[in-house]
Design goal:
CATH superfamily of one domain: F1F0 ATP synthase subunit C
CATH topology of one domain: F1FO ATP Synthase
Number of strands: 0
Helix content: over 70%
Distance between the termini: 51 Å
Largest sheet: none
CATH class of one domain: Mainly Alpha
Strand content: under 5%
CATH architecture of one domain: Up-down Bundle
Radius of gyration: 24 Å
Structural class: mainly alpha
Shape: flat
Order of helices and strands: HHH
């Protein structure tokens, strides 16, 4: 075992051992019911957004493939439109991810 591997392992073990020393006491939330439902809502929103975005992207790729097969001369224009559509579909899923992260990590409805 090399010296650097041993040193890294010792630092990681020491960090894991002393990390609870600096832990803070858990803050009591004013309304845990709201926090619980905001997390559940965020989870369902992520599931619906990911599923529907995947279905929309699959439909877009299938339609573009069929259009290119019918008219190979227009492949460049179709490919550009396809990429723009895929970017817009994915951006909607990313917006849902952003809102879900806000619901996960920030307490909704004030302090």
């Amino acid at each position: 075992m090399s010296k650097s591997v041993l040193t890294t392992a010792l630092v990681l073990i020491a960090g894991a051992f002393f990390a609870p020393v600096y832990a803070q006491e858990p803050a009591a939330m004013a309304n845990t019911e709201i926090a619980k439902w905001s997390i559940i809502t965020a989870g369902f929103a992520l599931a619906f957004a990911a599923g529907l975005a995947a279905l929309a992207q699959g439909k877009a790729v299938a339609a573009a493939s069929e259009a290119i097969a019918r008219n190979p001369g227009a492949a460049g224009d179709i490919r550009g439109s396809l990429l723009l559509g895929l970017v817009l579909i994915e951006s909607l899923a990313i917006y849902v991810l952003l809102i879900s992260l806000i619901l996960f990590f920030l307490f909704p409805f004030g302090k």
